[in-house]
Amino acid sequence: MGYEDYQCMDENGIREDGRKADEMRPVEIECGVVPVADGSAYIRWGKNEAIAAVYGPMEAHPRKIQRQDRAILDVRYNMAPFSTSDRIRPGFNRRSREISKVTRDALESVVNLELYPRSKIRVEIEIICAEAGTRCCGITAASVALADAGIPMSDMVVSVAAGKCNGIVLMDLNKPEDNYGEADLPMGILPMTDELVFLQMDGDLSMDEFQLAWDYNVKAAHDVHKIMIEALQKRYGGDV
Amino acid sequence: MAIPIIPSLLRDNLAALAEDDQRLDGRARFAGRDLEIEIDCLYNAEGSCRVRMGDTIVFAGVKFQIMTPYPDRPTQGGLMTSAEIRPVCGPNWEPGPPSEESIEMGRVVDRGIRESGCINTTELCILPGEKAWQVIIDLFAISDDGNMFDAFALAAIAALRTATVPAERFDVGEDYKLPVAGTPIMCSYQKVGGRFVYDASKREELGGDERIHITLGDEGHVHSLQKGLRGIFTADEFTEIMDTAQSRCAELREIVHKLEESQ
Question: Is there a domain that residue A15 lies in?
Fold first, then answer.
């Protein structure tokens, strides 16, 4: 199928997987899925599946990586070899390095690192099944895993993405919409203040389209935030 | 893997428990931990399995690629097993190129499957001398609480036995179920407190000595053996664990077959 042939929506405004333009794929989150970790979370987001685990705070070594006034986050995003339709050769690549970095930049903005000078907190994100939008999945799961590990944070980061396909702004692109689409706008939102700690974009959006995608993202972030809170409440009870 | 500090207290504790034929978690010497197997659980893998043994959790995913057969074996495809132990699965595992431990695990699991002959590589041939399937089993650990060898081996064979060859996607005919003739099963034993125990937990591994891995086929034939780590064992010790491996492997094989039937 060529780029021109792909139709993301039918005449009733319904997408291939049954969603409306502003609808997300179903999201499920579970805490404590890695028993040996200090904190962990599993997320299923449409067909995406990711596991995030947190270890620490622990001693940061070698010493040259230590910060005298705060902890450092050591974030790794990785895709399992069987997570995509063509096998991925194991090991880091430029894409996973960049995603690890922007994820770290997002999470470091909310974790109270000053509480743990000279230490390190490890955040491991493993994508075991991918269907477009894995970086958002990873950041969201990592936030829940950090909370599960009891690491103090000023807020949780909720990461969601809107995009554009066939000239229509769509919330949460799936694989074909991402492949044949024209734009993608992933954001990391702090649901308590609607501030941003993560922002990327590629493609082509008019200012109107951009505003609509932004609004879709902010609304969706609040929906996902509820699911994150429910997952933590399920494990710990009470109000989070 | 970073070498953890093994307190002599742990070794003393394990030795004292062994004298009363006890284990840290109250198990009998040859008893395994709670086992959970889920097959066909990963959407993008052509065959998949998740195994949980106590707090050890691993995945196996089977993928297919088209390869050019080797010139000396123009009618044969390939089988490859690769274990990746990422730092997600425990505080002492570090990032970087594949560690010795993960390479050993991948190779030992590979030998058990390969040597059992359950995959007939000639059946993987698409066009002699030009095209054949390469079957890749990727082993991926999520949580390491000991005995990842057995968890990997079990996940690998269960994933393989449920794999579908994605011929349509590669434009070489219709999808079909990968023929797998047999269910090789691995059982691992570790010397803890001076005697071998089955399915060692992480703490038993840390305070233990040598380990032995045995892979047995459907007829009870041996297909792979591996002795790992520092330690000395006697022929009598080996005979004892080989006997228990025979019955445990048969039990596990039965579990895998029942699971397949229920799908």
Answer: no
